[in-house]
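Sequence in, structure out. Go.
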Amino acid sequence: MNRERACRIVCLALAAALLVAPWGVSYACDEKGDAPTAPSLYERLGGVNKIAVLIDDIIERAYVNEVFKANPRIEKAHERFPKPAYKFNATALACMVMGGPQNYTGRSLKEAHQHLRVDEREWQELITIFRDSMNSFDVQQQEQDEVIAIIESTKGDIVVSSG
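Output:
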């Protein structure tokens, strides 16, 4: 799966998702060992364990959120799909699109969400949940903006058009 397609696969899952603090920034050398390279978003967020904690928080918030509970399709999906499996898949996806070594092998975001009929209000609520969760873990603004940009890149695969 190419990098662009991977970025488009980030899940409402409720996504997928992403990061945690503190963010120790370190620089690695390239393969030749002579030029420092900037750490990936995955590294800046603290790697898989911190991203998993954030994803756990985001999904817990989403499962009790009144906006999502009002959509019977989302509510039914929450009842049908085991929460631990959802968290695992969302963590793998988030890590992969942020430059980590994990490999997401689940369905595409479009396939996973088309039956949910996610609307603009629900989409905006998802962004709020991500922001609230990232703020609660003191994620730096630059990393938050990068995460939100990745999520926004998937909107066309998740939100139903209003036309």
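Check: Residues 3-158 form a domain with the Globin-like fold (CATH 1.10.490.10). Residues 1-30 have pLDDT under 50 and may be disordered.
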